[in-house]
Design goal:
Layout: E1 2-6, H1 11-20, E2 27-31, H2 40-46, E3 49-52, H3 63-83, E4 89-94, H4 102-121, E5 125-130, E6 132-134, H5 145-154, E7 167-172, H6 173-185, E8 191-194, E9 200-203, H7 204-220, E10 222-223, H8 229-239, E11 254-256, E12 259-267, E13 272-278, E14 283-288, E15 294-300, E16 302-309, E17 315-321, E18 327-330, E19 334-340, E20 346-352, E21 364-365
Parallel strand pairs: 1-2, 1-3, 3-4, 4-5, 5-8, 6-7, 10-12
Antiparallel strand pairs: 7-9, 11-12, 12-13, 13-20, 14-19, 14-21, 15-18, 15-20, 16-17, 16-19
Helix pairs in contact: 1-6, 2-3, 3-4, 5-7, 5-8, 7-8
Length: about 375
Amino acid sequence: MRVLITGAAGFIAKNLCVKLREFPDIEVLPYTRESDPADLGLLVSQADMVVHLAGVSRPANTDEFWTSNVTLTRLLAKALYADGRGLPLVFASSIQARLQTPYGRSKWEAEQIIKAYGVATGAPTHVYRLPNVFGKWARPNYNSAIATFAYNIVHDLPITVDDPAAPIQLVYVDDVVDEFVRLIREPSEPVENARIPVEYRTTVGELATSLQAFKESRDTLTTPNVGTGLQRALHATYLSYLPPTRFSYPLPRHSDPRGDFVEVLKTHSAGQFSFFTAPPGITRGGHYHHSKTEKFLVLRGHARFRFRQVVSGTTHQLNTTGDRPEVVETVPGWTHDITNVGDQDLIVMLWANEVFNRNRPDTVAAAL
């Protein structure tokens, strides 16, 4: 299948082109600002479907709204009419098409051209009035406020938030791409004013706060909840603006005769991760917890874990090695320690279900 993508060098199109390259049975036919408009007819004749993403939103001159958003759409429609096959067409419009701004009017006019093509030919046309789209490869100071905020925060530049309470409606570029790929892979009935299935609503102030928190996490080691929803998408977007020289960051190392201890990651609701080392013969631990729980995983070396129930005095002992991954859990009310019984440094990964609180450590020293 061949898919003609206009505006192929733009923000959304870059993401779509990369995604489509993952399908061996799909070939992308790109049309960019550098392309010759005279070639548009040939590209249409080679295509099985068109995704029309070309356009401008912040030109230096308002006349460009009509040149890029309306005139090009007319040229595309003319080529589609001449082709005569009634090719399916997906168009990325904007929620601003309902507004009487130069940009909004140009998008509305482009919508009418595409809808007329669908009515005249019976071709499936899908017009998406997109809200603010954000994600990797968006241009700062052009495509979205999130791109500008993320870029500036990463590069230690100031950001401006005129009204923190201002509402904003968002869609993530991966969700936009997934919807367009769905239409390419599984053609459906035409949809007027279609929507991306996943949308987010928040405020400008909340966006700025979240992006600042991502930057601060390298110092605090506390990562926000970035596994789902808007925070996941914002976090991925923020990281996409890191230059390669900032792909890594150092961690504090705490060393004493027992070995090293390094905190790696803290979370607000899922505890923290760390690792420690111990030279041969060294014992670490020797305490119990009332509620805190931990999981230990020996990555290298041989370890002996000892346990004692603080009331009954019942004891238990087990050995584990880095050659056979095995998680050892600490149980509330049981004193525990770990000894390096091997001949090389012991390296152990540790997860605790809560971030260490010096004012309430829930760690009571007790000999075994």
